[in-house]
From TrEMBL:
Protein name: Metal ABC transporter ATP-binding protein
Keywords, sorted A to Z: ATP-binding, Nucleotide-binding, Transport
Residue ranges of every copy of the ABC transporter domain listed in the record: 6-238
UniProt similarity note: Belongs to the ABC transporter superfamily.
Annotated source species: Halobacillus salinus
Length: 246
């Protein structure tokens, strides 16, 4: 049966009466790499968290893989914004990735040899296998982000959500992450990435969700990447737009 990877209807979210996301409706087909773009405070993280059911929504329906989110949790991997993660939490790289295997374990089972090997394979894919015994707090920004991507890979999800994965990340980590995200899409997985600026949007994404509280634009990158549409989202940040080559 064909279903959308993500389907959202009339989503509204607010904090203490202040609207952060207003009336967003859209649907994403499987296999797409989608960027959520918009200025700081545009509601990008809020939108992502509301889609995932991590914060309450005022109104609206969200389906992932044709079902309510709570029925497909195992199929959803989420990499939060770096500053939403407690990096002092005493856990090694390997154990952090091993946590990704938990949703697929049978009830009351602990990860065994098979899961440990799989975790190492995921670490290898992001180029972090040598760091498996490090504490996560002892890594650079790019290394931390690669470890969290490895954890998402370990989960074998169908839909991946990443919030600002390139912030505080070195160029080579960024390239590794983008390459893996593209590979996931080739395998038919759906990847949604919050990205606060427009740089590289064209190289990285198939589709863009341009958000500034409301949905300003949605579609193929070439359709959304138009001066008038971008200007509407970035309201007057024209110097910045020039820099981005719009
Ligand atoms: P973005 O990720 O695009 O930078 P956010 O979703 O973090 O934007 O924030 C959208 C708006 O909601 C901002 O005005 C922000 O201050 C507000 N906001 C975000 N999180 C909270 C919260 N936990 N409580 C109250 N207001 C919040
Ligand atoms: Mg954010």
């Amino acid at each position: 049966m064909h279903h959308k990877a993500i389907s959202i209807q009339n989503l509204h979210v607010s904090y203490y009466g202040d609207e952060a996301v207003r009336d967003v409706s859209l649907a994403v087909e499987p296999g797409n790499l989608v960027g959520i773009i918009g200025p700081n405070g545009a509601g990008k993280s809020t939108f992502l968290k509301a889609m995932l059911g991590l914060i309450p929504r005022d109104k609206g329906d969200v389906e992932i893989l044709g079902k309510p989110v709570k029925e497909v949790r195992k199929q959803i991997a989420y990499v939060p914004q770096r500053n939403d993660i407690d990096w002092d939490f005493p856990i090694t790289v390997r154990d952090a990735v091993l946590l990704g295997t938990y949703p697929r374990l049978k009830l009351f089972r602990r990860p065994g040899k098979k899961e440990r090997q799989w975790a190492m394979e995921c670490l290898r894919r992001v180029g972090m296998e040598e760091f498996s015994h490090r504490q996560i707090g002892e890594l650079s920004g790019g290394q931390q982000q690669r470890v969290f991507l490895a954890r998402a890979l370990a989960q074998q999800a169908e839909v991946f959500f990443l919030d600002e994965p390139f912030v505080g990340v070195d160029v080579s980590s960024e390239e590794t992450i983008v390459k893996i995200l593209k590979e996931l899409c080739w395998q038919g997985k759906t990847v949604i990435v919050v990205h606060h600026d427009l740089s590289k949007a064209n190289d990285y994404f198939h589709q863009l969700i341009l958000l500034n509280k409301e949905l300003i634009g949605f579609g193929a990158v070439s359709d959304v990447f138009q001066t008038d549409i971008i200007a509407k989202a970035y309201q007057g940040q024209f110097a910045f737009m020039k820099e981005m080559g719009v």
